[in-house]
Amino acid sequence: MKNFDKKYLVGDIKYLAGTDEAGRGPLAGPVVAAAVILPNDFYDYRINDSKKLSANLRDELFDVIRKNALAYAYTEISHKKIDKINILQASLLAMKTSVKKLKIQPHVILVDGNKSFSYYADVIPIVKGDSKSLSIASASIIAKVIRDRIMMKYSKKFPLYGWETNKGYPTTEHIKTVLKYGACPLHRKTFLKKIFEHANQTELSFIESDN
């Protein structure tokens, strides 16, 4: 993965940022993206696509990456914004904003996936980049840990949905709970339409909140 990144560090290209998001698929909560610039001599063999790591190892590597990175940043895009601009645009916005926040601006940016965003530096989409690039994998770990912690916090306010374990993803139990009791204000309305339609419910049902 380190060698993959090195291919882009040629000539005047000194700083490479990897960026990735977490939370495209869940029914509730924000999408979170991170951007990371690693030192050229940094390597940790344990860093990989965050989905392939245990929660404990992700937490450990979260600290390792933050300690060693030349720069890192993350961005949270709310469920309301996701409903307004769609999840793809929200994910790209989160990644672009994270790159903008970096205290060192990169010469080249590797983006996980097949889509990219406009920026003054070169932006290169990498399909399955979180399994190929050390920088993208590092960003995926930062984004995943931050988002999981957000959902753990929200689970205390809305304990009905089991977010402390499903993190908002559409598990069978999560869907059953939404259909039985309704959604809460942190659910993504656009994501629930098909679920409610499939259940022959003509209108979305939302639980009242003091938010």
What does this structure look like?
The protein is of the alpha/beta class and 211 residues long. It is built from eight helices and five strands, in the order H-E-E-H-E-H-H-E-E-H-H-H-H. It has helices at residues 2-6, 55-68, 79-85, 87-101, 134-157, 163-166, 172-181, 189-198; strands at residues 16-22, 31-37, 71-77, 108-112, 122-126. Helix 2 crosses helix 5 (134-157) and helix 3 packs across helix 4. The longest helix is centred in the C-terminal third of the chain and has 24 residues, at 134-157. It is elongated and about 60 Å long. The model has no long low-confidence stretch (mean pLDDT 92).
Give the helix proportion (percent range): 40-55%
- Look at the helices and sheets and give the structural class: alpha/beta
Strand content: 5-15%
N-to-C span: 44 Å
Shape: elongated
Rounded to an integer in angstroms, the radius of gyration calculated over CA atoms is 18 Å
How can the largest sheet be summarized? 5 strands, mixed
| Order of adjacent strands in the largest pleated sheet | 3-2-1-4-5
Task: Give the SSE layout.
Layout: H1 2-6, E1 16-22, E2 31-37, H2 55-68, E3 71-77, H3 79-85, H4 87-101, E4 108-112, E5 122-126, H5 134-157, H6 163-166, H7 172-181, H8 189-198
Parallel strand pairs: 1-4, 4-5
Antiparallel strand pairs: 1-2, 2-3
Helix pairs in contact: 2-5, 3-4
Give the gist of this structure.
The protein is an alpha/beta fold and 211 residues long.
